[in-house]
Amino acid sequence: MNSTEIVIAIVLTTLLILLLIAGIVISFFVTSRQSARQRAAFAEAQLKYERELRLVETEVSEHLMQKFAHELHDNIGQLLACINLEVENRKYGNPAMQAELSLVGTYLNEATDQLRLLSRSLNSEYVSNLGLRKAIDVELGRQQRLGKFSVDWKSDDHPSTLDNNQELVAFRIFQEVVHNAIRHSRAKNLKVQLTFQPSFQMQIADDGVGFHFDDTMNSDRASGIRNIVRRASMAGFHCVVDTRPGFGCRYTFDAASGNNDTTTAKATMYNGE
Amino acid sequence: MSETLFEILKWMKESGFMFLALITGAFAFRFFNKFYKLIFFQVVLSIVFYIGAYVILMYQASNHWMYNVYIFAEVMILLYAAQLYLSGSTRKRIVLIGIISFLSIYVIEGVTDGFSDILNITLVAAGLIVVVVYGMVMYSALHQTDFDWKMSPELWLCIGTLVYFACNVPFIGLIHQLLRYDAKLVDSLFYITEVLAAIRYLMVSVAFIIVWKQAAQRKLTL
């Protein structure tokens, strides 16, 4: 074997190994792409399943609320009406007790009104028929009558850009946020803004105690917020929770950048404007 | 004077990609994790040994012993970096077996044949071990990457390492026989190693640049 043959042999062997390495790299690359495709398909199936599950959950909870609303309206409402009738009868039969019974009658009327409004707000058909703007208006009126806090409520006059399901979800989100404000925030003022142009945006702010977003989300006390975030993502709303301890809380739901699961937490002060 | 200048220029040409890797690595160093820090350390070490080999040749006839020291340091750094990178006990165990095998072959060949000549069996074994280990690194890097594969720094790094270590085996494996047969032929064939080293360090530079670019993008979006 002369020098040239040795050089050729070594160079050819080196090139052969180079080809082998290229083959290995290409096969790794192909398998990785296949596995990435499988992962993507799996994630998509998982997402679809989650969506279906949320839809079923919503349907079940809406059905339950509807049933509850009917029960309130038909049974308890009827009972209260009967009691009211009885009080009125007693008033006529017992003129000495008229002043005391009138007070009871007033409270009963108030309870009946509150019950009627509550049953309406729980009834999804009522919300669909009324529209989001009017439903929020009625619900805020009910809350104001309870005297928990003062409400600053603003809305534009543009027609709704949401479909019926989105309106219903937006209303349930609104109820959950208000419920949280009543239960946890010790707020004195509530500010609600609703706009449909240029795109849907619902902003609910309170001047309550606020909270640390990450800590709350990592704790077991976050079921309400998780529910809000989950519903918002289901309806395709982008949700921004703007809060920190001692500085109130502001939720912004936005359909302009919708159809993503993003929830952003910021920390700025509620200025009460 | 002109001869010295010519030597320096020739040396710069041969080690140009090594310096490119050094420069890009120095710029991207603050974004490196432990794995890339070790790879960068290996680049620094290779430059130190490269300079050292030239200096030693001025005073001694052979610098083979230094090459033996270098290959020990290089392979140990690369294997330790892979050990840090890879997750999963089986893969880590394979790297550990690679390290133990390399050390055993190194010591046995060194003690038997002496450290003054190139330990070519050790070099071939090191080549095979590094190819297996960095094949695993590339496999796991590609399977972790959901984004654009071209932007996976590990991929480029592994391609360079695999090409260098695998393609060096035929030449290094026969180096003793070739030295006995024709020393000038070895000098000619050493060109293969130089080309492979250039490819390797070019790929390392690309990997460093990608790490740098990705870190800069992350910083902008935060």
The quaternary organization reads as heterodimer
User: Largest interface, counted with CB-CB under 8 A?
Assistant: A-B, 23 and 24 residues
The tally of beta strands of chain B, per DSSP, is 0
Q: Which class best fits the helix and strand makeup of chain A? A: alpha/beta
Q: C-alpha Rg of chain B, in Å?
A: 18 Å
Number of helices of chain A: 7
Return Rg of chain A in Å: 30 Å
User: Structural class of chain B, please?
Assistant: mainly alpha
Order of helices and strands of chain A: HHHHEHEEHHEEE
Quote the average pLDDT of chain A.
81
Low-pLDDT windows of residues of chain A: 258-262, 267-273
Helix content range of the residues of chain A, please? 55-70%
Question: Low-confidence parts of chain B, pLDDT < 50 over ≥5 residues?
Answer: none
Large-scale geometry of chain A: elongated
Helix content of chain B: over 70%
Instruction: Report strand % of chain B.
Output: under 5%
Overall shape of chain B: it is globular
**Amino-to-carboxy terminus distance of chain B:** 54 Å
Give helix and strand order of chain B, one letter per element, not per position: HHHHHHHHH
